[in-house]
Write a structure and sequence with these properties.
This protein is α+β, with helices and mostly antiparallel strands. It is built from 10 helices and 40 strands.
Amino acid sequence: MVYQFQEYKKSEILRDHLKMGRASNGKEEIKVNSLYFERNGKPWIGVMGEVHFSRLNREDWYEELCKMKAGGVTVAATYLFWIYHEEIEGEFDFSGDKDIRAFILEAQRAGVDVVIRIGPWAHGECRNGGFPDWLMEKDFKLRDNNPGYMEKARIWYEKIYEQVQGLFFRDGGNIVGIQFENELVDNAEHLLALKEMALEIGYEAPIYTVTGWNSEVGARIPVDDVVPVFAAYVDMPWAEHTKKLPPCAHYVFDTRRNDSTVGTDIIQDTTSDDGWRIPYEKYPFATCELGSGLQSTHHRRIVVSGMDAYALSLMKLGDGNNLVGYYMYHGGTNKIGKLSTLQESKATGYPNDLPVLNYDFHTALTQYGEARAQYGMMNMLHLFVADFGDVLAPMENVMSVEVPEASDFETLRYCMRTNGESGFVFVNHYQRLGKLADHQDVVIDTGKVVFPAFDVKGEICFFFPFNMDLSGMHLEYATAQPLCKTGNTYFFVAAEGILPQYKFAGKDVVTATVGKDSAVDVDSVKLVTLSLEEARFLRKLSGKVYLGETCDLYEADGEIKAIQDGDFSYYSWNGENFEKVSVSREFHPAQVVFEEVEEVFTPTYIEELNFGSERKRTWKKVIVSTPEGFIEIPDECDVEQLYADGEMVADKFYDGENWRVPAKLLYGKECYLVMSELKDDIYREW
């Protein structure tokens, strides 16, 4: 069957129409037009990953940022939670793990830019949305332009500025963006007042952002002063029920940027009665919260797979996303405050209960720095936008002739991004928690190029190029997905079940083998076609291409490392082929012994073990042999807590997966595991 597209219509590009900060620091330039971002005069697609510095240990910041960079993240976004820094009114703390300046400098050392999300309200599943308890008790309205609130907000902004001054892009630093407030969807005047106050204090960046989502018409924002950023999640752990949701609409191509299901726990899905609509045509499609993971709430346990996250991000690229932003990209651990725990719960007025410590978010990099499947899978997209983002960014979405709904599992899901002559065809054959109908003999006709027939079956999603320039050679089409390039060598990944073929102008079709040894020369160009399993471990570090042997590589202080412990091997591309390198590392993985015991003491956070109802508790003494590596806890339960010398050091809402905990948290201490009884009162995916 032949599949065609709707008519391509080129958009008018607006420039210098938004009130952003200084675009140049004398060496580099970052600008925003209505279709895409530009860096140093070229179209640019940044990859932004959320990581909360105050939820990590300071001594780990640099290594974790290096892992993020290796995964393709070019910009680290981070919240500043007011309650973390001024829990007691007038007592500010930016020391230790709360040192935002040190974090930004570590990001600069790792080669990563930063977007600071300065609130004042932040959410992030932090207590009161990050507001200190004392602020909640004031007699003036919060998140409002009244003098009482604005006076306190100014002090907060001033204190942050004291920490970060001199680190802005204008100064040669790496702060390239600032987000004002968060999920404030109905008060453009307040958002503008916050921005103006920040600029008065001295803040400046080439990109200013605010939350764009709300109802279909979008949040009310100061339209000329900010770039709205959007979200897409694969489930709704904040939903107040325990039923399975309808098929996630984000696995159908759709250029609508707004997702009114996000934030329904705290904002109302309202529609405009005065004709309000975000003027989407003023802004590039930018995301800040693509769900590379999700935080389970007590009543909804969500597990995000590698394919869940990869397909979601690929879909949004096809829709026109020109800033790839993830929330969260790196998990973390909540701090315990002087006066209270700092997580959201029903006790703080939030609709849902969340773990006291755990903010792992089941995302690309765990709260302890391990890599999940989505880390390597999403990197395949990040490699592409790093090397070909200047080509993709000016291209616009063109939808399929027939556009299916999320409930339609029969119709082929496809679209393209094009400039009218060349482009990329996107196909999705993946639906989270669902199975799509297979398609045989699919022929894609872009209007410029007709692809050879292929079958679309199984859980796959991919994009193929047409009329693409490869070092001066004209690639009419490829039935393989481009990854990255080095010199005149181009790396592709094969889509499972589809024969990888390359058609250059004036030449016969090249049918490729698949694997790290598949290099084939076509005149001056070399093509390497990897399998999906191999491509997950492909990295580009300091301009060089490496292929981990089932390990996740990163670079820190000029050394190639692996996230996984112990010995590892990788392949280095020398321009002609991959050369193997083996690395030996001394490693003494901890052995763990569990001994069932009677209740030893009353758990400090006993209410977490009894969310919803009183539950029986099981206790085990935990003994680890060394501080190296991780231990695994396989027990099925409701909530599990680990205590070391009487202090709770870790907790988790059980989600069907073994709990992995660093041995160093427990080694040399008297440790106990307490687990509460699992009942049939939650939504579960296992």
